[in-house]
Amino acid sequence: MHKISDFDTASIQATLFTPGLSFVPSKILASSLDKWGDTFDGTPISLPSPPEMPTEIPRVILESDDKRYKIEFSPARVNLFWLRMEDTDKINVPDFLHFSTVVLCDYIVIVNGTVGRIAAIVTRFLKEANPGKVLSEHFCREKWLARPFDRPQSFEIHAHKRYVLADKYRINSWVRCKTGLLGKKPNQEPIILVEQDLNTLPEETETREFSDVEIKDFFRRAGREFDSILSLYFPLEE
Fold first, then answer.
1. d(CA 134, CA 155)
2. Per-block average pLDDT, block size 10, for the chain (238 residues)?
3. Stated pTM of the model
């Protein structure tokens, strides 16, 4: 079976939730371009924000000219992404999360905001000619492979845990392993896709206030935790 080192990273997302934020799009756009214009050197997008628009919807979006980096600002949250654009694209997850802490913590200073929740999401994949069969054989007992999982066209497992990370952060941990397709028609290739999501509890968003030190610590630990979790599903050694 495949092991953790066989996977490539498709995308990474780092998010801070900002309850009660006084959101001024023009100030955010100007300050962001001043601070990170070298990274987000594509055409900026600023959307109208009528009162009825949900607070989670981005009002300001910046991205790099090559589309690999993107940041979305809304009153309720800020999302920073790295996106794989070419087959040769490689990125180190902990390195990106460290970069994220610099940008996101600077943003909180700009808007004089508070952070009630933190999340990080990593999506990885590997090319596999018969991903449904490979996943079912990896995760299912032999008696179930005869029937009903004898010839699955697609297959998915989804696991959720809630625990305390590093004796500090009460978190949800989600892992989804499933079949998928890479690329655009007619040249799509079958893949095994793994999505991992670590996030502090949504019910604490209005009551928690994470400091810069805690935000940096969370993302630093998350980088290691992603690999530790994935190695349980796809060990280095069988």
1. 9
2. 86 97 92 94 91 93 97 97 94 95 96 97 94 82 63 82 96 96 90 96 96 97 95 76
3. 0.92
